[in-house]
# Entry
Amino acid sequence: MQTATMPVTRLEVTALKVREHIIKMSTNGGCFVGASLSAADLIVYLYSEFLNIHKHNLDDPNRDYLFLSKGHDVPALYGTFAELGLLDPDRLKNHLSLDDNIYWHPNTNIPGIEFHSGSLGHLPSVAIGVAIDIKIKGGTNKVVCIMGDGELNEGTCWEAALVANAYKLDNLIFVIDRNQFQANMATEDLIPLEPLHDKFTAFGAAVKRINGHDFEALHEAFSAYPFQPGKLNVVIADTIRGKGLPSIERRADRWFCNFNTAEVDDLLKELHGEHLTQLISETLMVR
Amino acid sequence: MTYEELLTEIALSDDRFIVMTAENRALVRNIPSKLGSRFIDTGITEQTMIGAAAGLALRGRIPVVHALASFLSMRAFEFIRTDAGIPNLPVKLSSFIPGFLSDGNGPTHQALEDIALMRGIPNMTVFAPADEDDLVKMLPQIWSHPNPAYVRINTRKTNYIHTPFELGKAEIISTGHDITLLTYGLLFEQALLAVDILKKEGLSVGLVNLRSLKPIDERTILDVTRNSRLTVTLEDHFLTGGLYSIVAEVLLKHSLTANILPFALNERWFKPALLPNVLEHEGFTGKQIAERILGYKTFHRQPETTMQQFAE
# Structure
């Protein structure tokens, strides 16, 4: 149900447009489609509703921070920036062009991107440095770090959780895009992560596990920030790799996709077909 | 002034400074109580410490980080390269017990490739002080410079008084037309002894302290190799990638050749023992260096040097 404070339909429309951008970026060289589609709703929600980050405050040390450690989902970030006015949407056509800086991993030549990533397990620690500095200065700004579940294979993610616990970083939120897949296979078939909630709890974090495609669930979880005083916040967002395109959802072989133009057209139709039906039904339900 | 006194003084006068360690407090024992929240110990997590230092630098801080040279330069290498090197953040790496200074520790602790690794990172600057006086003279400039920096920390106390430091400049101790020794770090002390012996044998001998390895003083290397019949490179580093390689690169860049005699560890670690015995066993005492250059035994005695022990 839509609440007074949660413009679910607007967020869904934004997310739909972000998914369009992702699909269009998946041609002519391709991109990490599955990972981007699973994280799209998280990124749209965080920038639209939770984080104090916009094009006019990027130089303000009192703004919030979002670190995209799982760099493969950067098409979702580019798409969100395009929809929220941080990036000229025309620039997305420059994906993989030497004339621009829009490529497979985040980089700080794009205003609004906090730090480059691509090597996994790095940004949890960079986010810690930022969160510690905010604590020292008595700031109230929030630091979010989006990590992939496959990324949790990297030991430094767990080092970072230990250090965040030691420094009582309740201004830091690790968001795990729990789409159940790493590059080539299901996480639980390679390096099992469950029980993930218990693991982070045991590391001293305050953990919430929610449906990462449900904006109301996201809102309810993030509205409780900080989850517990003095504890690292962790949101495990259960998501679907390839969300929005049933033909590629939950498929291990849809990590990186380089679709041809005809396939992109079909995927856009598939996306709109599902989402239009869903949006109409939800809008009717609200009324 | 000691390293710790200098760091304390600068950090107390400039609140951009953050002192960090991955649970190695040997150099900074008195700092936690003085700096409070600006002292951060991340535990035995060299990689996470570097990432956090990058995050702090993003917020305008100047983190001075401490860890053992082998773990900092290798275990955290990709974090240094990726989190400090790519964005060119002023993360200042204080790398403790490099080279022979890890005397009794064994190969796990022998940082003998750190200069090769660090100078290969774009934006990184690399320094190797001869002793604590040299160290304290160079650090204010290194810490106020905007680039990331790797410093081979050497807090040995000697009686030598160095000239003021200039980034990218070598310290020319003496010039000589027969032989010139190029060195850095701990072995500067032995080089002084070797030069003394060589002079007593009637030779004209030069000595250069290459305290700034990146940026390197190309002009001095070119002058030395042109004006001396033999150039000696002397370092407690693998032969590959350190000073010998730097000199070779400079010469090749200028289409020059020279007679070079390198002292370095070639494709091997050194035998662990107490520092004076390590130097003796590996052939790096002043007397041994002089005699290898001369090609014959002299009647000189190896003069005494004060060997302060490092146990970690």
Remarks:
- The longest helix of chain A spans residues 261-286.
- DSSP finds nine helices and five strands in chain A.
